[in-house]
Amino acid sequence: MKKGSSRMLLFLGLVSFSFFSPAETNRTSRPPPESGEQCWACDYREHSKQMRLHGIRSQILSILRLQQAPNISRDMIRQLLPKAPPLTQILDQYDPRVEDEDHVTTETIITMATKPDPVLQDDLSSCCLFSLSPKIQPKNILHAQLWVHLRPADAVTTVFLQISRLKPGKEGNGTRVRVRSLKIEADAGAGSGSWQSVDIKSLLRAWLRQPETNYGIEINAYGADGEDLAVTSAEPGEEGLRPFIEVKILDGPKRSRRDSGLNCDEESAETRCCRYPLTVDFEEFGWDWIIAPKRYRANYCSGECESMHLQQYPHAHLVNKANPRGTAGPCCTPTKMSAINMLYFNRKEQIIYGKIPSMVVDHCGCS
């Protein structure tokens, strides 16, 4: 009987354990439902944020057709960035956001001068070659300016600025064809000198129609004493003063569409699909090649798209009904995005000021 009794007690103990243990476990280790949902939402939100940052990096490189970010340091930027009115105006009046309108947009491309082929250069020390971006086409040029920096004159004088187009001559000797001549009244001791601009739209179109004729130009600015005041190469103390071409080209119109969505902040307890603020800092990326903006408001989407919330998103409700059973439902994604204007160096060390599409999340929704 003792043996049978012990078996009975063991059986009762097992029944007791199986009946009470799960409930006790749930009461002691499971967090309150609301707290658990908030924790899950925070983790999912952080994942969405990191995915958005990764996507922005990849998107910018893809749009600019770069396999990797240009290797341009801050020291190189200080040397390459022209200290000139066009860039000063862009940086001073910079607007990182583009308004949501249907309008024709423009892009500004700045190309710095380099030295031409030594065979053509011969004894010309004031030659400059410009490698033109493939984006620039004869029909989409709005205006094209050549910017030249003049050294300060010792006295009030008249400066004759001459722009000559280079052509290969016989026996390797280069020839010049005068393109433009300007008469400039220069003040004495004008501090660090002055910038002068010359319209070269016709010259640029001729180069584009016959690229093989682009051997560069010669730039001279002679004062009364015959001294050449034009800065054509970066001498010590003249960094950022080399000649450059500023070209404004025409882009196509931008279409926009209206949408709505929820807006939340990082402290929000909202679990539905919502737009959250996110500031992208390009310096944290190590992307010094982006001149401006250094940071911008990108935003991101995160949250659930449950059937109980679908009445707020009619489009998502239709998509969900159309999906066969067992397939994934709607996801929280951007339903409206806008562009930003960006000033940056490309891999050829050309300065580009243009529009980068789909960089700002304006609204989020289930789709």
**CATH fold node name of the largest domain:** Jelly Rolls
CATH class membership of the largest domain: Mainly Beta
CA-atom Rg in angstroms: 32 Å
User: Helix and strand succession?
Assistant: HHHHEHEEEEEHEEEEEHEEEHEE
Low-confidence stretches: 1-36, 95-103, 254-259, 308-327
Number of strands: 16
Report the oligomer: single chain
Round the mean pLDDT to the nearest integer and report it.
76
Which architecture of the largest domain would the CATH scheme give at its second level?
A: Sandwich
Main sheet attributes: strand count, strand direction, barrel closure: 8 strands, antiparallel
The secondary-structure class comes to: alpha+beta
Molecular structure report:
- With 367 residues, the protein is of the alpha+beta class.
- It folds into two domains: 132 residues, Ribbon (Cystine Knot Cytokines, subunit B), CATH 2.10.90.10; 150 residues, Jelly Rolls.
- 27% of the residues lie in helices and 31% in strands.
- It contains eight helices and 16 strands.
- The strands form four sheets. Strands 1, 3, 6, 8, 9, 12, 15 and 16 form an eight-stranded antiparallel β-sheet that branches. The chain has a four-stranded antiparallel β-sheet with strand order 2-7-4-5. The chain has a two-stranded antiparallel ribbon with strand order 10-14.
- Strand 15 and strand 16 form a beta hairpin.
- The longest helix has 31 residues.
- The chain is elongated, with a radius of gyration of 32 Å.
- The N terminus is likely disordered.
- It is found in: Secreted.
- It comes from Cyclopterus lumpus.
- InterPro entries: Cystine-knot_cytokine (IPR029034), TGF-b_C (IPR001839), TGF-b_propeptide (IPR001111), TGF-beta-rel (IPR015615), TGFb_CS (IPR017948).
- Belongs to the TGF-beta family.
- Acts specifically as a negative regulator of skeletal muscle growth.
